[in-house]
Design a protein that fits this description.
heterodimer; A: mainly alpha; 2 strands; 58% helix
Amino acid sequence: MKKRIIFALFLIGFAAILGQIILMRELLIVFYGNELSTGVVLANWLIWTSASSLGAEKETAGKGHPFGGDEYGLCRDSLRGNDNPCLSGIFRIPLLELSSLAVANFSRGSHRPYGAPQSSARSDCSTVTLEGGIPPLNIPRRFGIS
Amino acid sequence: MGLLITAYIIGLAIGSGLSTHKLRSLSSPFLCFAGIQFLVAIYPLLLLAIFTLFSSGSFPSWGANFLFPLLILGGGFLGGFQFPLANKLYLESGRRVSKSAGLVYGLDLVGSCLGALLASAFLLPILGIPGTCWALALINCGAFFILLLHF
C-alpha cells in the first residue's frame, strides 16, 4: 500500500508539472509573455496551492492522527476521496488542468491584452514605442489622435 | 521553460533528499538553517555578478544555455535543502507532521506568491534587474539577522 501511494504521488507530481508547463505556455501566448503576466500567473498558481495546503492542514487537524501515526492513511483517504470517487485527488487534478487549458485556448484570439503586437502593415495605425520596457501602443488615426 | 522548470525541480529534489538524509546526523539544525539562509542572501549577488559578466561579453553567449539552468538548479537546491530543516525546527515545538508540513508549505507559498507579484509588478519595472538583486539580498540578509537574533 505504501509503495502504491508513493507511486501515485509520483504520478500526481508528474501530471501536475506537465499541466503547469502546458498551462503557463498557453497563458504566455495569450498574454504575449511579458514579466507582469508571468508574475500574475505564477502568483495565482502559488496562492491557490498555499490555500489548499493551509486548508489541508486545518482539515487534518481534527482527524486524530497523532505525530508518527498513520500519515499514509491520511494521504490514502485524500487520494480516494471520502464520499464521491469522482472528486478524489486522482480525478481532480487532470479535470482542473483540462478546464484551465480549455479556458486558455478559448482566450486565444478573442483577447488582445496590453502590449499585444499588431501588424505594422495596417495603414490606419501609428506605432508608438516607449523606452524602459513599455510595450508598443497602437493608436488608430481614425480617432483623431496623432 | 520546460528545461528551466526541470532544472529547478531537480535542484529541489537533490536538496530535499540530501537534507532529509542528513537530518538525523545534524548536530545543530538551526545553525544549518541559518547558514543556508546566508547562502540564499548572497545568491542574488552571485546572479548579479554573472549577469554583469555576460553583459560585458567576457563569456561566450552559448555559455548561458548551460549556466542559467545550473543557476536555477542551485536555487532549487537551496530551497529544497531549507524546507525539511524548517519542518524539523517547527516539529521540535511539538507540532504534528501533517500540521507542520501544511503550515510551513502554505506560508512558504504565500510568501512566494507575494514575491512573484512584487517582483513582476514593482521591483523589476522600477528598480531593474540589478536593483532587484540588491533588494532581494537585503531582504534575505534581514531574514538571516532575525534568525541570528533568535539563536
